[in-house]
């Protein structure tokens, strides 16, 4: 496969509203990101993924866009955004913008026009259907609502929303709407951004005929429908291929075989993708399942397409809490998970705060949570007559707010995130987990990430190397080989609170050079709890 800058990049996700607040309104802002670019440069990341900062009524934290050409007041203004882009580029980093094409906000002028009458020219920019048997057109539910349809009395039709009522789905069958979206994408690319993270991009094409789903709770009927590849090839032809950029598609419900259709280098669609076989479909850590997933995705894309590797983001609780050990082995576990994500095939993503081992939270009341997904689900379940406290306990671990707590900069009020009242409570463990503390400890999670990133820049084997799992049947030990142009590396991970012995793996490490470990260098055959080692065999 061709070597390219985006395949060699480490991407850092800035959830700006929780990153750094410079105007004391309790929300992070773009100036706050500018003020921390030197920190990101020191970490060594190459690309910054900025969550949506376009104008929005903020029902879904910016994923409900009401003006694609204006910056949300909470975030700042266009002049500040342009200064951010300039400062990112001055530091030799790149900026990709999060873009939502599947739906707009209900406050977008297009939707307001579409609502106004059956024959409004913008009516067909959205998905309107007549009632069926006096109710919704079909039995589909949405991610955030019991039904994917909301009735509009004045025009006597239902409109579709794959997410919240406030997020009406666009009708990608409408050519004029597509052209207006392509024009908007070129507007941002012509400003000099380096690509897009494309929100639920495989949902753009809707299922032909809008028939009832066999399993209305399943949701997969929302994605990968006929027509999606035609849309993406048209988008690539009219937008992407004219720029030196990276596009990463968020693609739920996708298999490696289908995934290749989106990111195959001969497909002229997207550059890479996030699949959700781990983040959405693995409730708790299952090493054997994880290895099987890695094997299938490696074999499915090998030599033809590029995967992306992540274990947490703004939608999923923090990896050290969900998949590691955020208690007595928090530091070792954070470093082990980082070693895994940065040495597996695919582009590694760092969600803000992951690089200092930030953990998930458990607030005591539903009132401490803001996530529309959780609030709607809580209401839906309680409205069924279920006991509120048991619903709360059930939803708590899944709340997307668990990863959205403010970045922890220092052991000062609100962790140095804001001088105002934070929009969401700061994790109470900020006195012991914060950037300032990490920067003063040579053996911190931060400096371990910095070392991993530096290793990646100097060793193409981490990026382009073949992958062989040497531990497929081991429930806790994960050992794999990466090989490229005569270089062979072995990665050893003991994802367990117990000591594990290597002898079961029948490895020959004689003469191997220990490149990196999250424990003091040791030649022992016993791996400590959550110990990670990288060896160079040749
Ligand atoms: O939140 C999830 C369940 O854990 C994810 O499945 C997520 O809802 C889904 O991947 C789509 O996420 C994206 O689109 C949503 C937005 O709320 C998310 O923040 C965004 O990442 C609607 O735009």
Automatic annotation (TrEMBL):
Enzyme class at the top of the EC tree: hydrolase
Domain of life: Bacteria
Keywords, alphabetical: Glycosidase, Hydrolase
Glycosyl hydrolase family 13 catalytic domain sequence ranges: 13-456
Pfam families xref list: Alpha-amylase
Record's keyword annotation contains Hydrolase: yes
Catalytic activity: Hydrolysis of (1->6)-alpha-D-glucosidic linkages in some oligosaccharides produced from starch and glycogen by alpha-amylase, and in isomaltose
Major subcellular site: cytoplasm
Species lineage: Bacteria, Bacillati, Bacillota, Bacilli, Bacillales
Descriptive protein name: oligo-1,6-glucosidase
A Gene Ontology term for the protein's cellular component: cytoplasm
MF term (GO), any: alpha-amylase activity
Location in or out of the cell: Cytoplasm
CDD domains: AmyAc_SI_OligoGlu_DGase
Origin species: Halobacillus salinus
EC number: 3.2.1.10
Family: Belongs to the glycosyl hydrolase 13 family.
């Amino acid at each position: 496969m061709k070597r390219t800058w985006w395949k060699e990049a480490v991407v850092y996700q800035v959830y700006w509203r929780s990153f750094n607040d410079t105007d004391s309104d309790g929300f992070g802002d773009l100036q706050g990101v500018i003020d921390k670019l030197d920190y990101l440069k020191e970490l060594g990341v190459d690309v910054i993924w900025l969550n949506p900062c376009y104008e929005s009524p903020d029902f879904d934290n910016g994923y409900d866009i009401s003006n694609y050409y204006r910056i949300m007041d909470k975030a700042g203004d266009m002049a500040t955004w342009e200064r951010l882009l300039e400062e990112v580029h001055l530091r030799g980093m790149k900026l990709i913008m999060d873009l939502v094409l599947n739906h707009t906000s209900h406050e977008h002028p297009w939707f307001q026009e579409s609502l106004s009458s059956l024959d409004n020219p913008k009516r067909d920019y959205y998905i309107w259907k007549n009632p069926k048997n006096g109710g919704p057109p079909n039995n589909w539910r949405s991610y955030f609502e019991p039904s994917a349809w909301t009735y509009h009395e004045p025009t006597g039709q239902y409109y579709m929303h794959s997410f919240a009522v406030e997020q009406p789905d666009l009708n990608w069958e409408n050519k004029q709407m597509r052209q207006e979206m392509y024009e908007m994408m070129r507007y941002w690319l012509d400003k000099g951004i380096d690509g897009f993270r494309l929100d639920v991009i495989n949902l753009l094409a809707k299922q032909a005929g809008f028939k009832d789903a066999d399993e209305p709770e399943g949701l997969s009927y929302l994605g990968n429908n006929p027509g999606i590849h035609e849309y993406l090839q048209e988008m690539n032809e009219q937008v992407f291929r004219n720029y030196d950029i990276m596009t990463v598609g968020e693609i739920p419900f996708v298999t490696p075989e289908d995934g290749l259709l989106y990111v195959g280098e001969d497909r002229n669609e997207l550059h890479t993708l996030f699949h959700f076989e781990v983040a959405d479909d693995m409730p708790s850590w299952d090493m054997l399942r994880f290895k099987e997933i890695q094997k299938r995705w490696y074999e499915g894309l090998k030599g033809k397409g590029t995967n992306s590797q992540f274990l947490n983001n703004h939608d999923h609780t923090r990896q050290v809490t969900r998949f590691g050990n955020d208690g007595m082995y928090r530091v070792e576990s954070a470093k082990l998970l980082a070693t895994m994500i940065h040495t597996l095939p695919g582009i590694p993503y760092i969600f803000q705060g992951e690089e200092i081992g930030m953990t998930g939270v458990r607030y005591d009341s539903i009132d401490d949570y803001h996530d529309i997904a959780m609030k709607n689900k809580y209401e839906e379940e309680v409205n069924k007559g279920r006991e509120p406290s048991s619903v709360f306990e059930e939803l708590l671990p899944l709340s997307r707010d668990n990863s959205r707590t403010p970045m922890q900069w220092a052991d000062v009020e609100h962790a140095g995130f804001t001088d105002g009242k934070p929009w969401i409570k700061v994790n109470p463990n900020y006195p012991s987990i914060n950037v300032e503390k990490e920067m003063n400890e040579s053996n911190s999670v931060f400096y371990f990430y910095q070392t991993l990133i530096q290793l990646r820049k100097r060793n193409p084997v981490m990026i382009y190397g073949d992958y062989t799992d040497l531990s497929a049947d081991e429930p806790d030990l994960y050992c794999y080989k990466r090989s490229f142009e005569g270089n062979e590396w072995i990665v050893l991970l003991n994802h367990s609170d117990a000591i594990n012995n290597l002898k079961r793996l029948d490895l020959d490490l004689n003469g191997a050079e220990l490149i990196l470990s999250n424990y003091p260098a040791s030649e022992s055959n016993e791996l400590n709890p959550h110990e990670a080692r990288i060896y160079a065999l040749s």
